[in-house]
Design a protein that fits this description.
By secondary structure, the chain is mainly α. It contains seven helices and two strands. Helix content is 57%, strand content 6%. The chain has a two-stranded antiparallel ribbon. The longest helix has 22 residues. This is MarR family winged helix-turn-helix transcriptional regulator.
Length: 155
């Protein structure tokens, strides 16, 4: 085995590949055209309606420059709407449409249902410990990210 196979960064990248593959497979089986980032955006908008794109990017730890493409695709699918912000006429507020709410209601249980499959090979106790350690290290390293996770702003 080469040294690379024991490096945290490589293993995290591989686990991410597995996660994206499982997500894509399960969405395809459900007849749904949705990516993991689009799912994250829908979840964030469900919990935080009428936020702008920059806030959305921070809530899902996604690059502010490329979030526009995600928003464009979700709007094109009729899952979100953009309206002029009440607080800042130059900004656009994002909100789930009825179709977005319905799709999120459909896929949320599917996504919850395959989380253990992403961590296949681990016992329930090991999965819980792994999740605790991932939360701990991602919180500690958040400021090192090019797209740090940001808490929602008080409304």
């Amino acid at each position: 085995m080469i040294e690379l196979h024991d490096m945290a960064g490589h293993l995290i990248r591989r686990l991410h590949q597995i996660s994206v593959s499982v997500f894509a497979e399960r969405m395809k089986a459900a007849g749904v055209d949705l990516t993991p980032v689009q799912f994250a955006a829908l979840c964030a908008l469900d919990a935080n309606p009428d936020i702008d794109q920059a806030t959305l990017a921070g809530l899902i730890a996604y690059d502010r420059v490329t979030i526009g493409g995600v928003v464009d695709r979700l709007e094109g699918k009729g899952l979100i709407s953009r309206t002029v912000s009440r607080q800042d006429r130059r900004a656009r507020s994002l909100r789930l449409t009825a179709a977005g709410v319905a799709l999120l209601d459909q896929v949320r249980p599917i996504v919850r249902g395959f989380q253990d499959d992403i961590l296949t090979g681990l016992s329930a106790d090991e999965r819980a410990q792994f999740m605790t350690l991932m939360r701990k290290t991602t919180r500690a390293g958040n400021d090192q990210s090019r797209a740090p996770l940001q808490a929602p702003r008080p409304g």
